[in-house]
Amino acid sequence: MQMKVSKKFIKTSPDKIRPIVALIKKMPFESALTQVKFLNKMAAKEILEILKSGLSAAKDKDIEMENLQILEFRCDEGPRLKRRRIIHKGRATTINKRMSHLTLILSDEKNNKSEIPNPTQNKNRV
User: Fold this and answer.
1) Are 43 and 80 within 8 A, CB to CB?
2) What distance lies between CA 98 and its chain's CA centroid?
3) How far apart are CA 124 and CA 92, in angstroms?
4) Measured between alpha carbons, how far apart are the two ends of the chain, in Å?
5) Contact predicate 46/73, CB 8 Å
6) GO molecular-function annotation terms (predicted)?
7) Looking at the 3D structure of the chain, how many domains does it have?
8) ∠118-47-103 over CA atoms, to 5°?
């Protein structure tokens, strides 16, 4: 059984979140949770929240934490807040404050990658 958990509009740049996501991708859930707890990064707090949310979704479906596996963990870019910074001679430069969207897909069975359909594969392609 698969569960999808997402968190949107995180006020952290995707460039700061993606290395942590790459670190815990394809890990068993329990070891990923332990790994993120002891990371010394600000973005680890946001990832820990989504992992705990996934754990609570699994408990709602009566799935034990030992059986959970991270199937997919994705960090996408959200909208940008555009700000201006005034510099010399009346000029202004733009500052983009980037946001992130996190998506976590958990499974209780191992090696269950075939259940997720790949949208890029098209059978009717010439």
Assistant:
1) no
2) 15
3) 51
4) 34
5) no
6) rRNA binding; structural constituent of ribosome
7) 1
8) 20
pLDDT tens per residue across span 30-72: 999 999 999 999 999 999 999 999 999 999 988 888 888 899 9
| Residue 122 forms part of a structural domain | no
92-107 sheet: strands from edge to edge: 2-10, 92-107, 69-86
Q: Is residue 45 part of a domain?
A: yes
6: containing domain: 2-110
- For residue 68, being part of any structural domain is answered with yes
Query: With contact defined as beta carbons under 8 Å apart, do 25 and 51 qualify?
Result: no
| pLDDT tens, residue by residue, 91-114 | 999 999 999 999 999 998 755 555
Alpha-carbon dihedral sign for residues 7, 63, 37, 70: negative
- DSSP category for residue 26: T
Say if 34 falls within a structural domain.
yes
Can you give the CATH number for the domain in which 82 is found?
Answer: 3.90.470.10
Query: Whats the size of the chain, residue-wise?
Result: 126
Count helices and strands (H / E) in the chain.
Answer: 3, 3
- pLDDT at position 65: 85
DSSP 66: G
